[in-house]
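Checklist before submission:
- one chain only
- standard amino acids only
- sequence pasted in full

Submission:
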Amino acid sequence: MSKFYQELFEKHKNGESNPNLTEVRSLADELLNLLFPERCSKTYKNKEELELEFEDLKISFLKLILKVRPFLDKPCEQLVDCFFDSFPSIYEEMTKDAQAIVDNDPAASDLLEVIKTYPGFYAIAIYRIAHALHVLGVPYIPRVLSEGVHSTTGIDIHPGAKIGSRFCIDHGTGIVIGETTEIGDDVKIYQNVTLGALSVDKNMSKKKRHPSLGNNVIVYSGATILGGETVIGENTVIGGNVWLIHSVAANVKVYNRSEIVIKQ
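Returned file contents:
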């Protein structure tokens, strides 16, 4: 047992240098609260006080990034500056996502309700943050963010996926969006949709293995779309429970023909 304890100790003694899961998720939530005060009740006396809050959060993110410094090829300070400089565009995309949900979901009364309560918006917003860090080459932290959302909402969006503007997730439970998925603008996805790989093979790790969806595509609940060469053309509607492993042209509807028989 002494050898076993020694091996565990070697892992634990550097524990402070590893990103803490709770810390990562807490910082992301703090960031969302700053961008969307609708999510919390905190107020600021003036603009300067809000700027100071952002600067404090920036320092916290820097401390977090420093913990993965051995895996980075750029200075941590530079990465954090780039990350925070991207906030105006990230905020704009998040706001468009929220408005898209309001515009597409009859049950959504207004932006306030979507921002405060909708798991689909929360999942997309955290994805936007995680994707920005992923693009900058920051390891581990983006996946911690995406898996945190996965555990709380049932929505699994890999930080490496490329998602356009005004993305709408309705209900959301059970959605899976793989690493190399590409999604255009104004796409709407319902619950239990999988955008996945055709096969699970480690040799495919650096290749395009998830589908691409064009602009204005709607994917209804239970649909499964697989494969890196699978392209869904723009303005196409994929019906519920459809299974697709090949490309579909633009401006078409794809659905299962089902029959319901009722006998007495």
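Reviewer check: The first strand starts at residue 156 and ends at 157.
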